[in-house]
TrEMBL record, chains A, B:
It holds the Pfam family FUR. SUPFAM superfamilies: Winged helix' DNA-binding domain. InterPro entries: FUR (IPR002481), WH-like_DNA-bd_sf (IPR036388), WH_DNA-bd_sf (IPR036390). This is Fur family transcriptional regulator. PANTHER family: FERRIC UPTAKE REGULATION PROTEIN (PTHR33202:SF7), ZINC UPTAKE REGULATION PROTEIN (PTHR33202).
Length: 126, 126
DNA sequence: TTTTTAATGCAACTCAGTTGCAAAAATAAA
DNA sequence: TTTATTTTTGCAACTGAGTTGCATTAAAAA
């Protein structure tokens, strides 16, 4: 497993994630960088960044893949235990700093919990 | 909005959901009934049953649509506040009877919470 | 500067889910 | 029951997210 190469495309994507705390859907990212790089390239870069723990992935309400770099990321290995919030009005998606309490289920071994909260964000809640 | 018609296909799908407490992915359901009915028919029947509150829908770990009929269903209007569990070993998916505690977020209005638990089920946890 | 290895672009593909439309089956009306 | 009305179905074609093989290009190592 070689080190991730510092290509122009990798720099662009990395810079983007450093510039925002919000999460972004891959589709939007592909659109955003459509002039700069290929769709496949984005998917592959995101895979690599996730492997490295630089960003973390999760699914939005529609089942679309989203990525974000939050302060939990790059704690050596990212364990995704925080919820995500998606605004049904403006579409904004973000990580929520809140530790999920994982319910104990008899005779089951729960390894992971994914909590997705939907509603209206501060801007859209008038 | 007319009443849902009692066709052969609707009966089959309904009977299936009455026969199990487990959830099932649409893809699996399409496969299961591939001899009896068309893919589109299944998708449309599930839409209707969901509208009627007879079953409820949610997304599995892979983002694939799943349906289940649990005791919460058909309480007039189904509010999906219970978590779902997906076994990473045998693939079984089921509803979990456990009320999610929805975190309050400052200035946000949270309308819904979707919690997906993954791990190993009683049978696969040796 | 050359060699090695990883990353990219592209086009073609997979697979879940959707849609338009004509034909068939339910229900309602007569 | 028979006819008229409305919903449902099958089919085939489509959409859109995500993947893949492969030749070319660009990084990093030698």
């Amino acid at each position: 497993m070689g080190v991730i190469r510092n290509t122009k495309s990798v720099q662009l994507v990395t810079e983007f994630f450093n510039s925002t705390k919000e999460a972004i859907g891959v589709v939007d990212l592909v659109e955003k960088f459509s002039e700069q790089m290929n769709k496949s390239t984005i998917y592959r870069i995101l895979d690599r960044l996730e492997d490295e723990g630089k960003v973390h992935a999760f699914l939005g309400v529609n089942g679309l893949k989203h990525y974000a770099k939050c302060k939990d990321c790059s704690h050596t290995e990212h364990v995704d235990v925080h919820p995500h919030f998606q605004c049904t009005s403006c579409g904004k998606v973000e990580c929520v700093s809140y530790e999920i309490s994982i319910p104990k289920l008899p005779n089951k071994n729960i390894a992971q919990a994914q909590l997705l909260l939907t509603g209206t964000c501060e801007r859209c809640t008038s």
